[in-house]
Write a structure and sequence with these properties.
- The N and C termini lie far apart (41 Å).
- This protein has ten helices and twelve strands.
- With 272 residues, it is an alpha/beta fold.
- It has one domain: BirA Bifunctional Protein, domain 2, CATH 3.30.930.10.
């Protein structure tokens, strides 16, 4: 009998709500209230998520973001800033035992990301980690913009990075999330970043680059969840968020993720 997992498909939410739901799911699982879970979702309106240790004012033109009502939010996880526009995002909450994961953080991260490798391969792409790169891959790059940054454990297609993923652990409980761009407008995104992003599209792969035509969010969601189930041999049962999770997420949104105290905590030298 296959292990049962919960699949949450709750559509599009704003930046603050998306990060609040992720944390509410994590806390619910840690307290024993839910099955291990994979959630697949989108962002509406568009927004930016910042790595836990990033300073918004150092990375973004925050005045322009505020002026144009573009939400930016600090994540629970590290890494670089992601512009969430036309793309698909997932989050996973489980224990190491749920997927028979190695104890090593890096090894568990690589294992979980195999479902992404398989997803890209199902679209006809030859995907691999940069650490397993071939001669097509350029030297690794640093950037405040996640999709342009390249590290050993990022995923590459034809030498270009596709998507971005990050993990947080609490003992045996693992939280991992990541985003994959369907299409990307670098000229628009570059207006909000202090870093000059001109030319970074040469280092970035999107789903449309692979499929040659825009992939609908619903189709990508079905294929992504299917790849997860097949890769790990689990039975995904679609369920809604619990009433407790919804209540906790609402509180986290209003009292944490939408506040300057949380989003500017790194700038103020505060670690929360």
């Amino acid at each position: 009998m296959k292990p049962r997992w919960r699949l949450v498909l709750n559509g599009y939410n704003d930046a603050y709500s998306n990060m609040a739901v992720d944390e509410a799911m994590l806390e619910s699982y840690r307290s024993g209230g839910t099955l291990p879970t994979i959630r697949i979702y989108g962002w509406d309106p568009q927004g930016i998520s910042l790595g836990f240790f990033q300073d918004p004012d150092a990375v973004l033109y925050t005045d322009k973001c505020v002026e144009e009502n573009l939400q930016f939010v600090r994540r629970l996880t590290g890494g670089e800033a992601i512009f969430h526009g036309d793309g698909i995002t997932y989050s996973i909450v489980c224990s190491t035992k749920d997927l028979n994961l190695p104890r090593s953080v890096k090894e568990s991260y690589l294992t979980i990301c195999l479902f992404l490798i398989n997803f890209y391969k199902s679209l006809g792409a030859q995907a691999s980690f940069f650490s397993w790169r071939n001669k097509k891959c350029p030297g690794l790059k640093r950037s405040d913009f996640c999709f342009a940054a390249q590290q050993d454990f990022d995923i590459a297609v034809d030498g270009k990075k596709i998507g971005g993923n990050a993990q947080k652990r609490h003992r045996e409980v693992i939280f991992q999330h990541g985003s994959i761009p369907i299409q990307m407008d670098i000229a628009k995104i570059g207006r909000y970043f202090r870093e000059d992003l001109a030319g970074v599209e040469k280092r970035i792969m999107t789903l449309t680059d692979i499929t040659r035509s825009p992939l609908a969010f619903s189709a990508a969601s079905t294929m992504l969840s299917g790849s997860f189930a097949k890769t790990f041999g689990v039975d995904l049962v679609e369920e809604e968020l619990s009433l407790l999770e919804l209540s906790n997420a609402a509180g986290l949104r209003d009292n944490k993720y939408s506040t300057k105290e949380w989003n500017y905590a790194k700038k103020a030298g505060v670690v929360k």
